[in-house]
Amino acid sequence: MAQTTEHRPPAPARTPRTPRVHRAWSVAAVTFVTIIGAAAFASLPGLLIEPLHTEFDWSRGTIGFAVSVNLALYGLTAPFAAALMDRFGIRRVVAVALTVIALGSVLTVWMTAAWQLVLFWGILVGLGSGSMALAFAATVTNRWFTARRGLVTGILTAAGASGQLVFLPLLSWLVEHHGWRPAAVTVSLAAIAVVPFVWLLLRDHPADVGLAPYGGEYAEKPAPVTGAARRAVTVLLKAARTGPFWLLAGTFAICGASTNGLVKTHFVPAAHDHGMPVTAAAGLLAVIGVFDVVGTIASGWFTDRFEARRLLAVYYALRGVSLLFLPLLLAPAVHPPMIFFIVFYGLDWVATVPPTIALCREHYGEDSAIVFGWVLASHQVGAAVVAFAGGVARDVFGSYDTVWYASGALCAAAALMALVIRRPGRTDGLTLR
């Protein structure tokens, strides 16, 4: 009898495991918690101006300069954050960034000179927060999700506003009842408390745990990228030769000036100048964070249906009008017109982001993400300038009224700049040679 040979099929290629709840959701949850923790240090600067001025007799311009360094470094570091994560991994970069933030915040407790505030809060916290920035959420979403990317991006974007809602009332209560030092320590603890979650639960890539991205196919983890930073600079130099880049950067600089630089930094001390308790003013800022989420989602819906540059013009015009009325609304108590301003302004807070991203995509294609990173840097530089200038104006004029009116005029200029942006293929002399 002839011997038969059994032919076995070849071993199948490595296939990803399919857990009931995909690991991508736990990674997204850790990212959400991390961004909420990061919102603590973003919430504090506006609460520090009056206490530091009272205790150290530093001018508001000096304190505003430290905040401006923080905002500027946040923006200028952001375009390179993705390159750092590609080179060293998400987990390492975020853990180190949170540790640097915690260190910079806690060291302010022992400071005795203004230059130390610039070093600790401006440089250390600025570099730490910039190393996370929007690149953290974008990198996690791109690596771990193929399906539901829009949903996850929206949730992670909302985490910043949610964190503001959580921490602002708490930090303002600490500042008013126990002084600014416990508030600074709280920020430090919030940052360092997230580090173990990042280190133990976050993974750089689905392949690290033998999984495919959520809704996608398994792929091996790519090798570390070493030329991403060079590409970021190359794309900047290329985009800087075009007119739309400067118009987008200019409008977004005014966006940062009229939000992070002005309202987030100076609204609380300005309201306190009119007799409003710090806790009440901080509560109003937290409400802005709530309506910020609603306005951003709505703006994304509008951007899919209407021309982006016209949306930008409307947003900036409405924001400018609201800022012109704000000096008339500040009072010792919260009244209905002020609540209307908070809701209206909150809906417009970052409504400019979706149409700005859409315009970057229209004009710069596959380089649009990097171009938007540099446009975001201009946003933070604009915020930094007004954070400093607002404090100087308060020292010189004795009130913030001039700052509100000037910001309203800048928003009107941004509305006109948005309308000048042409559709791709119609440069009309806007390409710089």
From TrEMBL:
Regions crossing the membrane: 24-49, 61-81, 93-113, 119-138, 150-171, 183-202, 245-263, 283-302, 314-333, 339-359, 371-391, 403-421
Gene3D superfamilies, alphabetized: MFS general substrate transporter like domains
Main location class: membrane
Places the protein is found: Cell membrane
Keywords in alphabetical order: Membrane, Transmembrane, Transmembrane helix
Major facilitator superfamily (MFS) profile domain residues: 26-426
InterPro entries per the UniProt record, alphabetical: MFS, MFS_dom, MFS_trans_sf, Proton-linked_MCT
Family annotation (Pfam families): MFS_1
Keyword Transmembrane: yes
Membrane topology according to the record: Multi-pass membrane protein
Name the record gives this protein: MFS transporter
Protein's organism: Streptomyces hydrogenans
